[in-house]
Each structure stands twice: as structure tokens, then as C-alpha cells.
Amino acid sequence: MSEVAELPQASPAPPMLVVLSGPSASGKGSLVSKLRELDRPWHFAVTATTRPMRSGEVDGEDYIFLDVDSFLRMRERDELLESAQVYDRWYGVPRQQVRDPLISGKDVILEIDVQGAATIRKIAPEALTIFVMPPSMRELRSRLSGRGTEDAADMERRLQEASSEIARMVEFDYRVVNRNGQLHQAVMEIDAIIAAEKCRVNPRLVQML
């Protein structure tokens, strides 16, 4: 009787950098809040910004809120993985928010705008990128209006920018449509995408940034 060959020892999947992006008001923030509730072994990177804090937001959890001088000092010291001015406000990803969790073996979830996602792809091409889509431009306008944080001119500018950003969806690995009343479905789709990627025969190997 021939001996049965031993199976190779399965190695744990390496940590991944997961980039969630999409136009303003597509619901990225709501998705991240619900993803946190899944209690997966993920680290949620916190972006630094110079924009004012909105009602209900928590410094260090939703964003790291900085004045312009403090932000620019971080930028000069190369402490930001990427940074950009969006709608007259600075946004940037502190390098430590991504590098340290990856080194410790944790997957990192990074919510970022489309411009920032393009930069991340250049410096970490093995990152998993997911584009969050609104169900329609009409609904996107409704969501922006409902926030009450933009005047008419700002809203039109954001809608024009959103149209340009949606055209760049082909640059991403996956897309998830965040439909009204179906936030849970979108969360489950993102969770399933990450789970499937962890099962790849040839895993994504993100270099420590």
C-alpha cells in the first residue's frame, strides 16, 4: 500500500492593506462604522485633516483634527503616507497608522478619497482597492443636500467631482454599491471580498510603508 503524501503546512495569510474609496457622500464613513462592529482583527487607519469637526465626530477616531501649521509640519517631516488638498482642506494618512499595524500582522482598513487611493496604489500596488458607489447621481445629490454642510456652489462642485471620480472606478479591484436602506448588504459584500482575498493561493504582499 502506497503512503499518502503529507499536505504542506498552511501558512497564515499575510496582512493586507484594504483601501475603501469613492465620491463624497457615497457612504464610506457609514460603512466603516458598521465594519468596526463586525469585530474582525482589523486596524482602521485614521486620516488627519484640517477641516472642522462635524457634530458627532470624535477626534482620533473619525479623523485626527489638526490646524494647518501642524498638518504641514507633519508633511514636511515625511510623516504622511500621502496628502492632498481637497475642497480647500488638507487630508493625509499618517504613515504610522498603516505601517505599525501591518508590521504587527493586522489587516489595515483605510478610508480615503479617490485621489488619495491613486497615490496609495503607486506606493503599495498590492493593496486591495474597493470603490464605494452611490446608487445614482440623483441619490448622491440628495445625500449631499441632507448633510447641510455645503452651499449650492459647493454642492455642484462636489457633484462634478463625483462624476469624474466614478469614471475612475475601473482603476479599482472591486466595486460595492451602497444602496439606500441596504447598508448591511454593502458591509457584508466588503467583508466577503476581504475574506476571499485572504484565501488567495498567491497572496497580496504589501511592503511595509
Itemize the secondary structure elements and their pairings.
Blueprint: E1 17-21, H1 28-37, E2 42-44, E3 48-49, E4 64-65, H2 68-76, E5 80-86, E6 89-94, H3 95-103, E7 107-111, H4 114-123, E8 128-133, H5 137-147, H6 152-166, E9 174-177, H7 183-197
Parallel strand pairs: 1-7, 1-8, 2-7, 3-4, 8-9
Antiparallel strand pairs: 3-6, 5-6
Name a few traits of the molecule.
five-stranded parallel β-sheet; Rossmann fold; alpha/beta; single chain; 7 helices; four-stranded mixed β-sheet; 209 residues; 38% helix; 19% strand
Write up what this structure looks like.
- This protein is of the alpha/beta class and 209 residues long.
- The protein has a single domain, classed as P-loop containing nucleotide triphosphate hydrolases (Rossmann fold, 3-Layer(aba) Sandwich).
- The chain is built from seven helices and nine strands; from the N terminus they run βαβββαββαβαβααβα.
- It has helices at residues 28-37, 68-76, 95-103, 114-123, 137-147, 152-166, 183-197, and strands spanning 17-21, 42-44, 48-49, 64-65, 80-86, 89-94, 107-111, 128-133, 174-177.
- Strands 2-7-1-8-9 form a five-stranded parallel sheet, with helices on both faces.
- β5 and β6 (89-94) form a beta hairpin.
- It is globular.
- The mean pLDDT is 90.
